[in-house]
C-alpha cells in the first residue's frame, strides 16, 4: 500500500513539473517586438506656442442689402474673377418700379424748375425797373428756390435707387478666386446674408489667439516659426498686429502673422501652430514627447513605456500645450523614463521588447 502511494505521489509531481515547463515554454515563446525608444525632451522656455488658422490676407464675404430671389449666379467655386465682374444678379422688379417713379418725378421737377426760373428772371428785371413790388419779387424768389429744392430731392432719390440696384447686381470687389458659394439660383437672399466668398491667393496670414498671461511677451514685428499641421511644413512669418483688447474674444488676444512666400501648398482654413519668441523663460521642468507617439482611446491619451521587465506598458498621460511636432506632458511620465518611439508591429500591454 505504501509503494502504491509513493508511485502516485511521484506521478503527480512529474505531471506538475511537466505543466510548469509547458507554461514556461509558452511564455518564453511570445513574439518579441522590435522597437525604438527615446526619453522626453526638456522644454527650452524660449518661445510661446499658440494655435491659429490660415487665411488669405485679402478676402471678402459678399452679401447684399436687398431682399429678393436670386436670378443668376455667374460664377462657381474655384473660378477666377476680375474686379468689377458680375457675380450674382438678384430680382429687382420693385426697385426698377421705384426707378420709373423717380424718373417721372425728375421730369416733373425739371419742368417746374424751368418755369419757376423763367418767372424769377422776368420779375427780377421788372423789379430792377421798379415795375414789380417787393412782395411780388419775394414770392417769385421763394417759388424759384422751392422748385430748385424739389429737383435736387428728385435727383438724390435717383441716386438712392441706383445704389439699391447696385446691390442687386453684385460685382467682385477685387480680382481673385471664388472660394465659397452659399446660395443657389432661386433662393431668397436677405440683407447681410453671406452669398459668396472671394480671396486673393498667394499671400496668407495666420490668425492666432494668445492667452492674457502670455500676450505681453509677444512683440509686433517679431519673426516667428509657423508649423502647418496638415502638410508638416515650417514657414517663417512676421507678427504684423497684436490686439490690445480681448473684450469680444473671450479673454484671448488676436495676433496676426504674415507668412513668407513658400512652395508649401497653403489653403485658407488650415490649422497652424505659431512659435513666438519670448524674452523671458517660462519653463524649467516641462518635458515634451512627439505628438505622433500618443495613443488615443476615447478621451484618454497615453504612451507605451518600457517596464522593468523589458515589456511594453501603456501609461495614461495628462497633456499640455503643443510645440511644433511635440506636446507637453504635464503628468504620467517623468524625464528619466523611456518611452517607445516606434515599433515594427502592433504593441499591446506586456509585449516583449527588443530595443534597437
TrEMBL record:
Residues 60-188 form the CzcB-like barrel-sandwich hybrid domain. Residues 207-279 form the CusB-like beta-barrel domain. The keyword Cell membrane does not apply. SUPFAM superfamilies: HlyD-like secretion proteins. Residues 130-164 form a coiled coil. The keyword Coiled coil applies. It comes from the Bacteria. Keywords: Coiled coil. Gene3D superfamilies: 2.40.30.170, 2.40.420.20, 2.40.50.100, Helix hairpin bin. Pfam families: Beta-barrel_RND_2 (PF25954), BSH_CzcB (PF25973). Belongs to the membrane fusion protein (MFP) (TC 8.A.1) family. This is Efflux RND transporter periplasmic adaptor subunit. It comes from Lutibacter holmesii. The lineage of its organism: Bacteria, Pseudomonadati, Bacteroidota, Flavobacteriia, Flavobacteriales.
